[in-house]
Write a structure and sequence with these properties.
With 273 residues, the protein is mostly helical. It has one domain (3-271). 75% of the residues lie in helices and 3% in strands. Strands 1-2 form a two-stranded antiparallel sheet. The radius of gyration is 23 Å and the shape is flat.
């Protein structure tokens, strides 16, 4: 890839990341099933389903929970196309690489083997790899639905409502802010470098430039991050998430929480039997 092509690809990735943040905030403000629930109910309910996914040993139960996640996404007006490109495809690639050895290393009944190689694919290996991929896909889908349908500060306030330590909440808040700060700084640096570069650079020069840029970006980001933290401290931030709206449980919230707990309990009971 050429120097200009690498810069263009990097800027495109940063732009997409910032655009996804805007989409997340837009989805959270739309009317929908999850948006109508109290943030504390969303947090407990979706993580209950994630726990049920991790404890289930039957692929049919995991597939059923995945179908429930798709239904919840549709009711919450979350684009399935966005989930497919941003979650399912990415998770499939990374988890597929991890699950691939299980096809050959899991002992059992062979379904494919070659004469020239001792490697063989077993039915038990296929089942183990499929279960792993399905579990990760489903769990990540539920956590993505929580982030997409709930403003980040509401998530932090819900965590504090359940007595999550203040230090952890502060770390999550700063990390969330630091990601976008890093992306913005990187975009500015690459644009500045592109405007001052004439012609093509050889590969060794590109590598040295990339290493120097990464070091400067890291030091600059740390410095800016400290400045942001001090600015937040001077404005009264002490680790607690402050939002204008108060959390109030309604009958619909209690009904939704009961439904989440019931589905999660039944899934764990069936999946482990």
């Amino acid at each position: 890839m050429s120097h200009n092509g690498a810069i263009a690809a990097t800027l495109l990735g940063i732009t997409r990341a910032l655009g996804r943040a805007l989409v997340t905030d837009t989805v959270a403000r739309q009317p929908g099933f999850l948006q109508a629930l109290d943030p504390r109910v969303r947090l407990v309910g979706l993580f209950t389903l994630v726990l049920a996914v991790t404890l289930a040993h039957r692929i049919s139960v995991v597939v059923g929970l995945f179908a429930a996640a798709v239904l919840i996404a549709r009711l919450s007006r979350v684009s399935l196309g966005a989930l497919a490109t941003r979650v399912w495809l990415v998770v499939l690639v990374f988890t597929g690489v991890i699950a691939l050895p299980a096809l050959f290393l899991t002992p059992g009944d062979p379904v494919f083997a070659t004469w020239s190689s001792p490697l063989r694919i077993t039915a038990q290996g296929i089942a183990a790899a499929t279960l792993l991929v399905a579990r990760v896909e489903t769990a990540v889908t539920y956590t993505t639905l929580l982030v997409l349908t709930t403003p980040w500060m509401h998530v932090l306030k819900a965590l504090r409502a359940f007595r999550v330590p203040q230090e952890i909440v502060m770390m999550l808040a700063m990390t969330h802010r630091y990601v976008f700060l890093l992306a913005e700084t990187a975009a500015q640096m690459f644009e500045s470098r592109q405007s001052r570069t004439v012609g093509l650079l050889d590969r060794s020069t590109q590598r040295r430039m990339t290493a120097r840029t990464a070091g400067v970006l890291l030091s600059k980001s740390v410095e800016l991050g400290n400045e942001v933290f001090l600015a937040m401290q001077s404005r009264g931030f002490r680790g607690d998430a402050k939002v204008l709206s108060d959390f109030r449980m309604s009958s619909w919230d209690y009904l939704g929480l009961a439904a989440f707990l019931l589905v999660g309990s039944v899934a764990v009971w069936i999946g482990r039997s």
